[in-house]
Structures are given as C-alpha cells and as structure tokens.
Amino acid sequence: MAVNLDASRALRDAFGAFPTGVAIVTTLDGNGAPVGVTVNSFASLSLQPPLVNWSLNARSPSRPAFERARVFAVNVLAHEQVELSRRFGTSVPDKFKGVAMRAGLEGVPVLEGVTASFECRVVACHPGGDHILFIGAVERFAHDAARPPLVFHAGAYRAVGDFLG
Ligand SMILES: Cc1cc2nc3c(=O)[nH]c(=O)nc-3n(C[C@H](O)[C@H](O)[C@H](O)COP(=O)(O)O)c2cc1C
Predict the structure, then answer these.
(1) pTM given for the model
(2) Beta partners for 124?
(3) Closest ligand 1 atom to the C-alpha of 60?
(4) For the domain 21-153, what is the CATH superfamily, name and number?
(5) Would you call 104 helix, strand, or coil by DSSP?
(6) From the CA of 77, how far away is ligand 1's center (Å)?
C-alpha cells in the first residue's frame, strides 16, 4: 500500500507493526554519572566481527553523553521489567535510583535481572535523519535464557506469545 509519508502518525503505526524487544542502552557521561535510554531500535548487525546497532533521537538530552562515550551497554529487558522501560523512556532525573547494576566495560552500567546484555565499544556513529545510528563492537555479553524478554508491538508492552514452530 502506498503511504503518505507526511502522515507521520500512520507511518509510526506502520513501523510499530514490527514487533521488537526492549532494551536500555547505558553509558557514563563526562562526570562519570550513569546515563540510560529505553530503545527498541536495537538490532544485531554482524556475527564476524560481532556488531550491534541502535539509534538515538537527535533531540534526546542523552545525546551529548552518547556522542562522547567510547563504550555503551545494551541491556535487553526481561518481561517483568516494564517499569524500568517506562522510567528510562522519559526524561526524568535520577533514572538509576534504586536500580540494581554492576560496572561493566570501562565502568559502563550493566543492569541486573535482564535477559541479555552486550558491552560494546563504539566503532561508528552516523546521522540518520532525525536519529543518530550507533554501531558498537561487542566485547562482552551475557544471556539468561531463563528470563523471558519484554516485547514491544503496536505501541504496547507484551510477553512472547505462542510458539509457531
Ligand atoms: C518502548 C520504547 C522504545 C523507544 N525506542 C527509542 C529508540 O530506539 N531511540 C530513541 O532515541 N528513543 C526511544 N525511545 C524514547 C526514549 O526512551 C525517550 O525519548 C527517553 O526520554 C530518552 O531519554 P532522555 O530523555 O533522558 O534522553 C523509546 C521509548 C520507549 C518507551
């Protein structure tokens, strides 16, 4: 179906037809304070070498921290972590208050209780329209297959549904 690309609500809804997981991407700012944003733009990019990518809104208050950072961590949320997703999906102060985490690569915050985490070194950063695309090389990762992931589809949080084979 042809779409009117000016109809951004309709385009958003069409983009939202693609189900994704939900991740919080974290780093440290220039003062060593933790920074994190909820994203569903995360994707695996390459196995050899291991690369991932995600995109950040160019207007995000977190942009300066991510642009200067040499490392970031992608924390893939488990389905019981909806509240964390909401918290890191808004511009609130003290996002990390009470959040269980450990220091990963170069001190980057790695959240506890997640389904998977990828500690990455930034290898590229490209403008992409109203977003900035970050590509990272995975230096460490962890995966807890016993924790089902959080799913985002059509603007709503969901759990993984039926197994279709
Ligand atoms: C499920 C979900 C997915 C999101 N995906 C992205 C994304 O991929 N990129 C992005 O820049 N913002 C995304 N956001 C919005 C940011 O999380 C939000 O703008 C947040 O306020 C950014 O943090 P900051 O304002 O502290 O910079 C998403 C929000 C939610 C709830």
Answers:
(1) 0.96
(2) 135
(3) 27
(4) Electron Transport, Fmn-binding Protein; Chain A (2.30.110.10)
(5) coil
(6) 14
Strand 71-76 and strand 51-57: the pairing is: unpaired
Q: Tell me the C-alpha distance between 14 and 84, whole Å.
A: 25
**To test the ligand 1 pocket, which listed residue (20, 35, 53, 60) has its Cβ within 8 A of the most ligand atoms?**
60
Contacts of 82 by beta carbon, 8 Å cutoff, 6+ apart: 150, 157
Name which of 121, 77, 118 is nearest 99 in CA terms: 77
Closest C-alpha among 57, 62, 59, 83 to residue 72: 62
Q: Is 89 helix (H, G, I), strand (E, B) or coil?
A: coil
* pLDDT (tens digit per residue) in 80-127: 999 999 999 999 999 999 999 999 999 999 999 999 999 999 999 999
Break the chain into its structural domains and give their ranges. 21-153
Longest dimension (CA), the chain: 49
C-alpha distance from residue 78 to each of 36, 138, 139 (Å): 16, 20, 22
